[in-house]
Amino acid sequence: MTRHILLINGPNLNLLGRREPHIYGSTTLADVEAQAHAQAASLDISLETFQSNHEGAIVDRIQEAAGWGLTAKSLDAPSSAESDGGEQSKNNSNRPDRVSAIVINPGALTHTSVAVRDALLGVNIPFVELHVSNVYAREPWRKHSYFSDKAVAIICGMGAYGYTAAIEFAARHMKLEEVD
């Protein structure tokens, strides 16, 4: 049995390192994921990463994290972008039915998605909300989050290092359940 963390990245985070580097930095999502996998291995944690620009795909993956909604297609999904929507999921072949914790950077869905919020609340898996930029130092509408009041922790404004902090927190400070 091992502890398992799911790292979810929402819309436009596939553009990290290219999109507005003065705000989001020059570290790519591939760099973030590689570092996260190395960190998880050093902490004896299983880590899966998932990115989608589609709200419904994120809702589906959150439900799958609880062992619900699993389909043959989702279990056999390729580790690179799928042809039907660009979702990326890594390490699917060894994926457990349920994860211990979720680290989520919802991107723009932070300010709009009741559906993702409801999915997170519905699965009852503890989660950390993560943002690369300091959303409180940006446009006024970015200060509202549909997730912050339910997150175990919120990390923002630390750039790509925020991912390291979020995984460290999830691995060491959250009560993670063991999964098969």
TrEMBL record:
<dbReference type="InterPro" id="IPR018509">
    <property type="entry name" value="DHquinase_II_CS"/>
</dbReference>
<feature type="active site" description="Proton donor">
    <location>
        <position position="131"/>
    </location>
</feature>
<feature type="binding site">
    <location>
        <position position="105"/>
    </location>
    <ligand>
        <name>substrate</name>
    </ligand>
</feature>
<comment type="subunit">
    <text>Homododecamer. Adopts a ring-like structure, composed of an arrangement of two hexameric rings stacked on top of one another.</text>
</comment>
<protein>
    <recommendedName>
        <fullName>Catabolic 3-dehydroquinase</fullName>
        <ecNumber>4.2.1.10</ecNumber>
    </recommendedName>
</protein>
<comment type="pathway">
    <text>Aromatic compound metabolism; 3,4-dihydroxybenzoate biosynthesis; 3,4-dihydroxybenzoate from 3-dehydroquinate: step 1/2.</text>
</comment>
<feature type="binding site">
    <location>
        <position position="118"/>
    </location>
    <ligand>
        <name>substrate</name>
    </ligand>
</feature>
<comment type="similarity">
    <text>Belongs to the type-II 3-dehydroquinase family.</text>
</comment>
<comment type="function">
    <text>Is involved in the catabolism of quinate. Allows the utilization of quinate as carbon source via the beta-ketoadipate pathway.</text>
</comment>
<feature type="site" description="Transition state stabilizer">
    <location>
        <position position="19"/>
    </location>
</feature>
<feature type="region of interest" description="Disordered">
    <location>
        <begin position="75"/>
        <end position="97"/>
    </location>
</feature>
<feature type="binding site">
    <location>
        <position position="142"/>
    </location>
    <ligand>
        <name>substrate</name>
    </ligand>
</feature>
<feature type="compositionally biased region" description="Polar residues">
    <location>
        <begin position="80"/>
        <end position="94"/>
    </location>
</feature>
<dbReference type="GO" id="GO:0019631">
    <property type="term" value="P:quinate catabolic process"/>
</dbReference>
<feature type="active site" description="Proton acceptor">
    <location>
        <position position="24"/>
    </location>
</feature>
<keyword id="KW-0456">Lyase</keyword>
<dbReference type="GO" id="GO:0003855">
    <property type="term" value="F:3-dehydroquinate dehydratase activity"/>
</dbReference>
<dbReference type="Pfam" id="PF01220">
    <property type="entry name" value="DHquinase_II"/>
</dbReference>
<dbReference type="InterPro" id="IPR001874">
    <property type="entry name" value="DHquinase_II"/>
</dbReference>
<feature type="binding site">
    <location>
        <position position="111"/>
    </location>
    <ligand>
        <name>substrate</name>
    </ligand>
</feature>
<dbReference type="GO" id="GO:0046279">
    <property type="term" value="P:3,4-dihydroxybenzoate biosynthetic process"/>
</dbReference>
<keyword id="KW-0672">Quinate metabolism</keyword>
<dbReference type="InterPro" id="IPR036441">
    <property type="entry name" value="DHquinase_II_sf"/>
</dbReference>
<feature type="binding site">
    <location>
        <begin position="132"/>
        <end position="133"/>
    </location>
    <ligand>
        <name>substrate</name>
    </ligand>
</feature>
